[in-house]
Specification:
The protein is an alpha/beta fold. It contains 9 helices and 7 strands, in the order αααααβαβαββαβαββ. It has 2 domains: 30 residues; 199 residues, Vaccinia Virus protein VP39 (Rossmann fold, 3-Layer(aba) Sandwich), CATH 3.40.50.150. Strands 3-2-1-4-5-7-6 form a 7-stranded mixed β-sheet, with helices on both faces. The structure holds S-adenosylmethionine.
């Protein structure tokens, strides 16, 4: 990238935020190798033998490429500023997938809980391998989450799929308002919500009216991420 492009990018709000995130990452060093060492490599190999698809970049077997996904999730943990316990944080990850994010959360001394549908045997097996708890539940628009126990300090959702309508379009402000109201009841008074949205069929992560809705709720929003603190409304 040419210098002029880099400078233009820096002065764009998203470019500025990503530069700040870069500085924060340097200020909070966390290495994937620490968590790789704690993995049951033989157990992972047994799962890989059953399900790995070389070169897969879209479907669930892609998450078995731990050399790619562990660093990705370390970056997520750093960006969210989830530090080592104490204090112990209760963390709910929605659409928890293979569980790499929650594995790091657990290794840092926190209390992880996954929530997912139970359609993918890979996720079932990786959660068992990583010794992570998971609630099986299908999120549907305008339906509350099940009872999940004590309030959470942090709720996350990465590369979300639960927010798709039957026609493939993505939830708008109406569905998100119900969901946010419900999540607010599950968060502690100072609890945080981090969303990282998958792109819609048109390639955009957030329609303008949805972005406006999140901002009105008091969230900080970049291209695909939404950071919201309980009580911000
Ligand atoms: C693209 S994967 C992302 C996995 C993980 N969050 C990550 O970023 O590595 C989407 C996840 O959402 C889950 N999911 C899809 N529809 C869902 C729904 N209606 N309710 C709950 N989870 C859902 C999938 O099973 C999968 O775990």
């Amino acid at each position: 990238m040419r210098l002029t492009q880099k400078i233009t990018k820096l002065f764009h709000p998203d470019g500025y935020r990503s530069a700040v995130a870069g500085v924060k990452r340097i200020a909070y060093p966390l290495s994937a190798s620490e968590f790789m060492e704690k993995l049951d490599r033989e157990g992972l190999e047994r799962i890989r033998e059953k399900y790995a698809v070389p070169g897969e970049k879209v479907a669930a077997p892609k998450y078995l490429d731990v050399a790619e996904w562990m660093p990705t999730n370390v970056k997520r943990v750093r960006d969210i500023r989830l530090f080592r316990a104490p204090p112990v944080q209760r963390v709910l990850d929605i659409g928890s997938g293979a569980g790499w994010f929650l594995f790091i959360v657990k290794c840092l001394g926190h209390e992880p809980l996954g929530l997912d549908i139970d359609e993918e045997p890979i996720y079932r097996e990786t959660f068992a391998l990583l010794g992570l708890p998971r609630v099986i539940h299908r999120i549907e628009a305008h339906q509350p989450l099940p009872i999940l126990g004590a309030p959470f300090d942090l709720i996350t959702a990465h590369m979300t799929c639960f927010n798709r309508r039957p026609d493939g379009s993505h939830w708008g402000p109406d569905e998100w308002m119900f969901f946010l109201d419900d999540l607010a009841k599950r968060l502690s008074k100072t609890g945080r919500l981090h969303l990282d949205l998958n792109p819609s069929p048109d390639g955009s992560h957030m329609a303008p009216d949805l972005r406006e809705f999140f901002v009105k709720c008091g969230a900080s929003v970049d291209r695909r991420r939404v950071l919201w603190r309980n009580g911000a409304r």
